[in-house]
Design a protein that fits this description.
Elements: E1 7-8, E2 19-20, H1 23-33, H2 38-41, H3 50-55, H4 60-73, H5 78-85, H6 89-102, H7 112-122
Antiparallel strand pairs: 1-2
Length: 126
């Protein structure tokens, strides 16, 4: 029998129950969004990902805005990430985003409009 490596992160909150059986899978997924030439590799429509973009509500205009934000701000929209990862987003997205944040490879950015809406709703008296 052949044995191989697995990744297990028992000390990272929300990952203590997850085991990555194929480390190359993790490297492949991270490489698809954490690369110096990401903007240059993206063209409309993403090859084989038109359905995913549609499901995520990404129009052609949105796509080009996302691409511009990659080069100008180093921001990658979570909807685009889900399509690049080509996996069911719930579990895999959670695991990958947690690892990206845990290892300081990236962080979640909340749109200013969302922050302002939250502030307004918290100012409303009971």
């Amino acid at each position: 029998k052949e044995t191989g490596d697995v990744f297990y992160f028992p000390d990272i909150p929300n990952l203590e129950d997850d085991v990555i059986l194929r480390p190359s899978w993790l490297v492949e997924k991270l490489r698809s969004v954490l690369r110096h030439d990401l903007e240059k590799t993206l063209s409309w429509p993403l090859e084989g990902k038109r359905d995913c973009l549609k499901k995520q509500g990404v129009s052609k205009k949105d796509f080009f805005k996302m691409r511009r934000e990659i080069s100008e701000k180093s921001w990658v929209d979570s909807r685009l990430v889900k399509c690049l990862w080509e996996e069911p987003p719930d579990t895999y997205n959670r695991v990958l985003m947690t690892l990206i944040e845990q290892f300081s490879l990236g962080c979640t950015v909340v749109a200013m409009e969302t922050v302002q809406q939250q502030e307004k709703s918290s100012d409303i008296p009971d």
